[in-house]
Design brief:
377 residues; alpha/beta; Lyase, Ornithine Decarboxylase, Chain A, domain 1; TIM Barrel; 2 domains; six-stranded mixed β-sheet; 19 strands; 31% helix; disordered N terminus; binds pyridoxal-5'-phosphate
């Protein structure tokens, strides 16, 4: 059933002419992923993490689609991302800024109605001062460091913070949050440690609900859900848990055009640095995407693309704008100028490409370039 649907998608893509590549973003699959995650955390709610342009997929398109499916909480990393997103969302959608306040942007945060994630006492005081200036209570989220040492209030500041939350009523704390460092590894004891720490935090702030789980955390069980989960990668089809069957639907498909084909004899050097030398007569194709389009140079002589389900290995180094592939396994004449090969699709997942490139799906997604023709379905 699904295969048929994907093939239809491919036929549709092939109808648009002339681009170097076609990046198809399946908004219906995105919505189904959101619904799956929502029902998994119910009665808690699922937010959407749309930082870094919704992991490269287009924050505006992604956020408005998820809004239509009931999502009302959107997390970005930076203030400038919140500014870009605000006009596309209705006023009942809340935008949370994970990095919190920067000196100088408090007034705009107030005016735009953003909810800063408070990561330090300094940010708390900044926001309390902004509330005083605005003459009204301002919403905020408190982020605690539960063992990742990246962002959030350290344990030794909790007593002081508890006093401030009690005594200063300019800031209205909506919930406490923390972030898991190893949630994609279901067996990691760091998850248990961070959960125990989070339970201590919620005991110290008993009136405040908790927001804890990222994509991986959602699959660690109910104890991690709090009132609001914060999935990112799973919405976009990435695997929430490493080494397990991915329960999410793929959202991104990428096809790249062939710009040249050739047949070379044994002993022919291919690409920069002659990093590859053919050992027999080989048919090659050059495709119109390279590291400038987010296909990392670490795929050189390691990764592959697909055509008709057949694996076509990358030979030699990945260039800025092109990659050479070995197409000897295909029938003669199957690929010609303008033909498309599959980089991400039914035969090759995001995780496959990430593994071959020695990185993670997040980096592949956020790196996908802007020279592809983007199609939203
Ligand atoms: C990026 C991020 C998320 C989303 O993480 P995924 O692993 O993509 O689900 C959630 N919370 C915080 C604080 C983040 O920085």
């Amino acid at each position: 059933m699904r295969a048929v649907r994907l093939e239809e998608a491919y036929a549709y893509q092939a109808g648009t002419d002339g681009a170097s590549g076609y990046l198809t973003i399946d908004l219906a699959a995105l919505a189904r992923n959101y619904e799956k995650l929502s029902s998994k955390v119910s009665p808690a709610r699922a937010a959407a993490v749309v930082k870094a342009d919704a992991y490269g997929l287009g924050a505006e398109r992604v956020a408005s689609r998820l809004y239509a499916h009931g999502c009302r909480h959107f997390f970005v990393a930076q203030f400038v991302e919140a500014l870009r997103l605000r006009p596309t969302l209705a006023v009942d959608a809340q935008i949370f800024v994970l990095n919190g306040l920067q000196p100088g942007n408090e007034t705009r945060c107030v005016r735009e109605g953003f909810v800063p994630v408070i990561n330090s006492l300094e940010q708390w005081h900044q926001w309390a001062a902004a509330a005083k200036g605005a003459g009204r209570r301002l919403p905020a989220v408190l982020q605690f460091d539960s063992g990742m040492s990246r962002l959030g209030l350290p344990p030794e500041e909790r007593t002081e913070l508890a006093r401030l939350v009690r005594d200063e009523n300019g800031v209205e704390v909506l919930f406490v949050m923390s972030h898991l460092a190893s949630a994609d590894d279901a067996k990691s004891s760091q998850n248990d440690n961070q959960l125990a720490e989070m339970l201590r935090i919620t005991t110290e702030f008993p009136q405040l609900p908790a927001c804890f789980a990222n994509s991986g955390g959602i699959f660690l069980g109910k104890a991690y859900h709090g009132v609001l989960a914060r999935p990112g990668i799973a919405l976009y089809g990435g695997a929430p848990t490493a080494g397990r069957k991915n329960p999410m639907e793929p959202v991104v498909h990428l096809d790249v055009s062939v710009v040249q084909t050739r047949t070379v004899p044994a002993g022919t050097r291919v690409g920069y640095g002659a990093a590859h030398v053919t050992t027999e007569e080989t048919r090659l194709a050059t495709i119109a995407a390279g590291y400038a389009d987010g296909l990392p140079r670490s795929l050189s002589d390691r990764g592959a693309v697909y055509c008709d389900g057949i694996r076509l290995p990358i030979v030699g180094r990945v260039s800025m704008d092109s990659i050479t592939i070995d197409i000897s396994a295909l029938p003669q004449g199957r690929l010609k100028l303008g033909s498309l090969v599959e980089v991400l699709g039914p035969h090759q997942t995001l995780e496959d490409v990430a593994r071959d490139a020695g990185t993670i799906s997040y980096e592949i997604l956020t790196g996908l370039g802007h020279r592809y023709e983007r199609q939203y379905r």
